[in-house]
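Hey,

The postdoc asked me to send both predictions to you directly instead of through the lab channel. I've kept everything plain text so nothing gets mangled by the mail client. Protein one:
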Amino acid sequence: MMTNLFSIFDPSTNIFNISLNWLSTMLGLMFLPTYYWLIPNRFLLLWNNILNKLHFEFKTLIGKNKTNGSTFIFISIFTFILFNNLLGIFPYIFTSSSHLCMSLSISIPIWLSFMIYGWLFNNEHMFSHLIPQGTPKILMPFMVMIETISNIIRPGTLAVRLTANMIAGHLLLTLLSGTGTSMSSKFVIILIMIQFLLLTLESAVAIIQSYVITILSTLYSSEVN
């Protein structure tokens, strides 16, 4: 049962023994052609407002003296994760964000770039983060170990947070859909309503998780400056 349950996350589309499932990672680019953005519409205005609010929020967290290019990096990460999370909700579309190899490929380069930049160009500031202010001298060695471990596990926590939340919602929807065939017609209507509510909740989780991952990455970048 568990094997069949988790098999919904296995890549299964192959042509000439080449897996095409991971192409869905870039599927969002097909829905955003260049000429589409040249036509004023409500979706464009809404999306521009969201990006502007994210830009000002990220700029506040990073620092107002930083260039706009720093915020554009995090906005691109937010957009990439958001489209992959939302596309994974649709039927027959491979959910790439539910795999650790995809989420780790995002979190590890971000964390490594912050660590390399911080220790090369701002090492005194990085050392000061290892010991919080007001720490007793007897606890300083333990605080250094705790802060070092917390810094090392950051990419793992980012990746696991995204993967676990996406897997949990998909598994719950799969479990409920599998029990529909053994129910009477009265309970099927209730089950459809519950699935609709879960689908709405899963859409909200997809948006929230992309925002949380981006905000945490922004906070990590502010620590090395």
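Protein two:
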Amino acid sequence: MTCLLNDNVQLVDLPDELILMIMNKVKPKVSLLCSIIAIGNNRLEQLALDKCHSIDLTIDYFQSPYESLMTRFYTHVAYRIIDNIQSLTLNIRQIPDIVSYVEKNSNGILPNLIHLKIMIGRQSHRTGTPYTLDASRSGGNRIISTVRCSTFMRSIVSLELENDCILPNIINPDG
């Protein structure tokens, strides 16, 4: 069998269906978006942008390039997809950043966001018990206040929390 070196197939040579299958395999999705958006290939960008209804910004693997990836996300990607996001999954530590970004760049609201999922961590690494964000503690109180008092929450119809997590009264600040 003869191997032809000039017959290399590049990603852009593939049909859209195959490219979409490949894109669906990339985890975390924010990594895909940061790699495809603003690289100058309109076809790949459009395929990626068409998939931006559900965004998972959680990056929980050890020694992840979290800071540089999120910086690129906020500077090159977020403004392109902000009106498309219907479902958003965040780590709790990302809430102040996303709320701040949305307040500065989108009048405080993601216009089509209806579902928010907050990932906190299944168990404390010290005790093995489920996390509880207690509003009486300063860290939990700051994050809860950031979310509760933000216009970011206006359009949310569905709020989901990671399993085994207790988060007191986040949607209705009066209840």
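Summary for protein two, as requested: The longest strand covers residues 87-91.

Thanks,
C.
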